[in-house]
Amino acid sequence: MNYFFSLLLMLTCSTYLWAGKVVGVVTDEKGETIPMVNILVKGTQNGTTTDQNGKYGITLSKGNYTLVFSFVGYKKVEKQVSIRSTEVQTINIQLEPDAAMLSDFVVAADYKDFAKEIARKARDFRKDQRDRLKKYSVHTYQRSALTGERKVKEKDSLKSETDSTQWIVNDTSFLKSETSHLVETVSDAHIDPPGKFREDIIALKDHSDIKPKDNFRGGGASFTVEFGEPSITPESPWVANPYVLIRDRYVYDFDIYESLINIPSICEKQLLSPIGNGAVLNYSYDYGGETVDKNGKKLYRILVKPLFPGEALFEGEMLIADSSFALMKCDLKINPRVLLFCEEFHLVMEYAMDENGFVMPVKKEFNYKIKDGKTRYYGNVSVLHSDYSINRDYPDQFFTNEITRYATDAYDKDSSYWKQNRSIRLNEKEQVFEHRMDSLRNYYHSDDYYSLADSSFNRINIWSFLVNGIGHRSRKRDIEFYINPLVMQAVPFGIGGYRHRLGGYFNKGFDNGYVLETTGDIDYGFSNKDVKGKLGVGLTYNPIRFMRTFVRVGDYYDMINNYASASTFFSRSNYARNKMFSISQRMEIVNGLYGELTYEFNDQIPITGLKMDSWSQDLFDTLNNPTAFDRYTKSEFRLQLTYRIRQQYTIRKGRKIVFTNKYPEINFIYRKGVPGMLNSEVNFDYIEIGAKHEGKIARLGTFKWNIQAGSFVNRQNLRVLEYKYFRGSDQWIFSDPLKSFQLLGPSLSTATAYFRANIIHHFDGVILSKVPVINWFKINLAAGGGTLLMPEEKFAHAEAFGGIERAIRIRKQIIRLGAYAVTSVNTENQGDFHLKFGISFFNPFSGKYDY
Q: Quick one: CA dihedral 267, 269, 275, 281, positive or negative?
């Protein structure tokens, strides 16, 4: 073995000792140096390029070679060279213009025009391909990983060399790095541009998803305030990791061959491809020389940089084929100023051309860095595409609203399957993580773990009474109950003063998938010596269709306007005593069409006779006066229908997950006050219809609008508590502009017909990102307005607002802060003007803000 290595070392040294070097300068016919000239050793892949001064150097071992000098717009020059010793040979070359090539290209003095022309031809190829590309399928392997790295201090104790009884403590720091997230997917995707998509998941292994979800923990421990306008559409049970920036369909949407790339988890504005429409107005192009691919075909290196440093653009290089001008590879970084979560985002994409001239991505790699406190997360998403079938036929009804489908055994593939189908080998850290997670997965599904988890939940100590609450859970029987801790029992701002509330829940799961949920609370007011409480019982029995029956009963102080402004939220004028019973049935009737039918009985009692607390009177003054009305009973039926047009979804692990919808959502509400039913005194009919939508206008920003119209078509016996209420305005708070008005006053309601419309547009940097200095602050503009009309009451209100917004990240949450100037005019007041401040939260699963 030693002899072999010695021989290998001698051969290597021998080759090195006989290596020579060829250097020189390349000039044009005027004697001016030419940078980026391509120099290739004929018959090999070995080569180099001249630097900015036209100089080059190449090292060759002993032998005879032919050097080929080439540059766009000039004739090729071949030069023979013999390497006989370690000497340095100087070979200067002069290139002559190529008239034939000049007929196709205008050779500019600085090569920028040539680079721009190459990019233009690449855009033409992209457009031609998109015109020809129809339905196609592709096989994909995808791996997504997150690695956390942070500095860790460790104290080492060492004995002193001079005194063996003395210890010296050294503080040492080292980087601790470990994988925290690893997901692998094998799938077949089917695409019908521009909008139809379906992905069939063959196998999925989430190495991070090992711990079983708690049966019920985290459910409502007591009644929560039902604040805001009622919604019956479901929220997704899946919580997305905001640090996994590329997932689901975005893996396929991220393609430089697309003119605009919309990845809301990366940046708010759509990314503009360097070969997209309008790219020439946003990028500078430079020529970076030539290279060859593995098949020996010439590729042009085109360097791209953003013209506007605050825009959502790329920087890096593209390799464009010589004859077809197809983009074959790109190595790009996204402008860091537009990134939401990460400090850096780098992507490399490789393409291949088939026999019909279609160029499709075969490899995508995304690397990014995120700082979270003292930890830096390094994200990597690697994607391999293969087995394209282009312009294929699909049967009718192949593309449906179920855009992702999981094979029945997608989660059950064993290790042998992954060893065979894992196209990218796991690195050492990922292999350790995989082994550790497999071991933990077995433990988390063992009886020992369940017993330990239950005993931890069931443990009672002093902190259980004060902070954690008291609970009991048995996974074997699928039972859990919980009682609120002392900190949740105190209600200092209750009706009449301090109230003490005891709340909790009891839940039971069944083998058939049914879930019984009960929640309730009881409270006592010391000023008025009154006991109030409520109880709710719900049964969910079809998670695919969101079918749930819920019963409520109670005697409590209820809000008159559930969407009151902050200034009147705690005001006693917004409360009445409510003795009630209700039953609701909610379900998804067909995909996208949700319905809920509710019957509710109320005994409505004013709180005018109660003893009030002094603090609320001092704070709210006249607004604190309880609403006066005669006690009455009511039986009301309420039907609400919501339709999400072309709602896209997937069914994962027996649960339906609804994706963000790009079509309008339509809402219908019918309320009927039934006279005589259980001595009901009301008699009214109310109809409301509305629609809302959100979308993007290319790179001009995002918009959201909401329109509603309603009327009491019958108001023979309509009481003030049954009116249609609108959200009032606050002094400094900018409330959700799609559901409220900023300058409408503290409270407004109607017993007649009304029409309202609201809109907001976020410009996403389309203006300020192009302004020097200002674009460094990442400030965006927003504008919008609203109107409210009540014809029978001869009331009209209109308002408009404009402001600046700035998105910030606090750990895993992105928050958009805004300052807005609002002005309004209505039939009762002259023009008004206020400055308001708002806050909106980003949802990483939907990729959207609250407003």
A: negative
pLDDT tens digit sequence for 785-798: 999 999 999 999 99
Q: Cβ contacts of residue 216 below 8 Å, gap of 6+?
A: 473, 480, 505, 507, 509, 517
Cβ pair 728, 748 in contact under 8 A: yes
Q: Please state the pTM of the whole predicted model.
A: 0.78
Single out the residue of 42, 12, 130, 240 nearest to residue 845, CA to CA. 240
Are 795 and 789 in contact by the 8 Å Cβ rule? The answer is yes
Distance CA 566, CA 560 (A): 14
pLDDT at 627 over 50: yes
Q: How far apart are the first and last CA of the chain?
A: 71
Take residue 167 and report the two structure tokens written for it.
């210890």
Q: Is 478 left (phi over 0), alpha (psi -120 to 50) or beta?
A: left
pLDDT band at 458 (very low <50, low <70, confident <90, very high): confident
Range name among 109-118, 330-339, 538-547 with the lowest pLDDT average: 109-118
Please give the Cα distance from 837 to 405 (Å, whole number). Answer: 43
Tokens of 113: 């025009």
Cα–Cα distance list, 558 to 279, 569, 785 (Å): 57, 11, 31
SS3 at position 408: coil
What are 509-526's pLDDT values in tens digits? Answer: 887 778 899 999 999 999
* Per-residue model confidence (pLDDT) at position 226: 52
Measured CA to CA in angstroms, residue 122 lies from 175, 327, 627 at distances of: 44, 6, 70
- What is the mean predicted confidence (pLDDT) over 602-631? 81
Q: Mention every residue, 6+ apart, whose C-beta is less than 8 A from residue 609.
A: none
Contact between residue 144 and residue 181 where contact means Cβ atoms under 8 Å apart: yes
Phi-psi domain of 150 (left: phi exceeds 0; alpha: psi -120 through 50; beta: other): beta
Between CA 141 and CA 22 the distance in angstroms is 45
**CA-wise closest residue to 495 among 402, 576, 397:** 576
CB atoms within 10 A of CB 344: 13
- 378 pLDDT more than 80: yes
Instruction: Report how far residue 297's alpha carbon sits from residue 40's, in angstroms, rounded to the nearest whole number.
Output: 12
Give pLDDT, residue 227. Answer: 52
Q: How far apart are CA 457 and CA 507, in angstroms?
A: 15
CB atoms near residue 70 (< 10 Å)? 18
Q: Strands of 659-701 (E only): list them.
A: 665-673, 683-696
Angle, in degrees to the nearest 10, between helices 428-444 and 447-458: 70
| Virtual torsion, Cα 424, 426, 427, 430, nearest 10 deg | 150
Asked if residue 159 has pLDDT above 80, the reply is: no
From the list 183, 122, 66, the residue with the least C-alpha distance to 327 is 122
